Amino acid sequence: xxxxxxxxxxxxxxxxxxxxxxxxxxxxxxxxxxxxxxxxxxxxxxxxxxxxxxxxxxxxxxxxxxxxxxxxxxxxxxxxxxxxxxxxxxxxxxxxxxxxxxxxxxxxxxxxxxxxxxxxxxxxxxxxxxxxxxxxxxxxxxxxxxxxxxxxxxxxxxxxxxxxxxxxxxxxxxxxxxxxxxxxxxxxxxxxxxxxxxxxxxxxxxxxxxxxxxxxxxxxxxxxxxxxxxxxxxxxxxxxxxxxxxxxxxxxxxxxxxxxxxxxxxxxxxxxxxxxxxxxxxxxxxxxxxxxxxxxxxxxxxxxxxxxxxxxxxxxxxxxxxxxxxxxxxxxxxxxxxxxxxxxxxxxxxxxxxxxxxxxxxxxxxxxxxxxxxxxxxxxxxxxxxxxxxxxxxxxxxxxxxxxxxxxxxxxxxxxxxxxxxxxxxxxxxxxxxxxxxxxxxxxxxxxxxxxxxxxxxxxxxxxxxxxxxxxxxxxxxxxxxxxxxxxxxxxxxxxxxxxxxxxxxxxxxxxxxxxxxxxxxxxxxxxxxxxxxxxxxxxxxxxxxxxxxxxxxxxxxxxxxxxxxxxxxxxxxxxxxxxxxxxxxxxxxxxxxxxxxxxxxxxxx
Length: 606
Hints:
The protein has 606 residues and is an all-alpha fold. Helix content is 77%, strand content 0%. It contains 23 helices and no strands.
């Protein structure tokens, strides 16, 4: 087998195309995912059993567990699915992949998704050139999806062609009589081979060839298939490399699921393999153990016949060839039954431990900071609503989470002002600010959608007024996020104009930020308990708002004099005042929330 440096570079390019496709697909999803897509995914994964069925049917449809789990990673990366939901879908995908093995065993063919990729790209490019943002986003998603599959296909093309060179595994027969150590060795081989060639189906074919040549027993073939279950997790792990912490946790959950399943199976491996051999005989497909004994008997008694058996020189009507063919079918069915039984038992055990899985994965892959956490609603779900009055209380808790998250953007905007323009750190901070602004928009839509659904239920007049007030509050909080992003846009214009701020401007902006930060903290604290906001807290908020307005007026009044006295350039003064004005507007939105709390929520005045 020849494998050149160009083949290796082609492999690197294929992995790069796969990762880029994953990135574009995830970004397109985030842009295109309206409430409809989120609600569909939510309905499909509302509980662990519907999620399980979703994963099974998607994988059975596209006949690739790697592709379906990569899509799940992408959904989690885009914030459309949480970790617990993704775990159930991945469990279903593991069962769904056995459908492919049965298709191959029964009919000998597999759906080739790659054949549809080029037409799909042609359709997606048309969408990219439309004027509307929604079709453009869908086009980006389809382009990413196409690149992802092209990358998967090219990875299989550029890896060493192990399937056509089974002689590479001939030496493994020397390790076939070491008892449990042989099982562990062949399990590791299945893991490595599948991780390299990115196809459990190809590993299945190699295993069948090794059985046919009499190199390994049916039990060791089962060990190879067992190892391939772990090896197939490498694809979503590679995909998660370009994703966020939630995506990495999803890929780790997939690995953990298959790893723990392999552990229990190895503990009872010999009787479990014999059980699957018995099932194969029970359905009338013969004993899969017979192939190894039959082929080795031929090799020992008639070496020439053994050699002719595999070089294609035996006549088509040969009794030996017919017998080997029947036994190969028996092994093929036996391995398919083993794969199916293992995954069904694994899911039957693990489906009840989903929440424990989530905790373990969060411990194994911790977030470096709270900024790493992706968008999720903490207190309200997207499921069916029943008691609308009680659901209002849940939405009130979500207001605090929303405000607290948006409050982080104030610090981000201040850090951006003090970061060297065009530096890597500046670009990173700006991207994070954009990400949070996008999250803010989506949280507003999710909470508003939830409240509107609450309003459709049987509510008291007080409940209806409270929902109207909460809708007003989330609109004001989203406006605060827009103001923080507005600072980033002002800085971008400043950088394009080549303008610099002096220390006096920085000091004044910092002083203004102190007032705004204090006002925001007061508002967030008030949202912790909306019904018991004290009179003292309200007075402090109004005093802070007056301080913000007075300081804004003071800075605006001194700005013209500072420019005339050449403290800084006129253009610097423009951007400086734009930022101060933006901060003052932030204070206005904060006090609007406080007004709503005072007028529509507060029961007690302490």
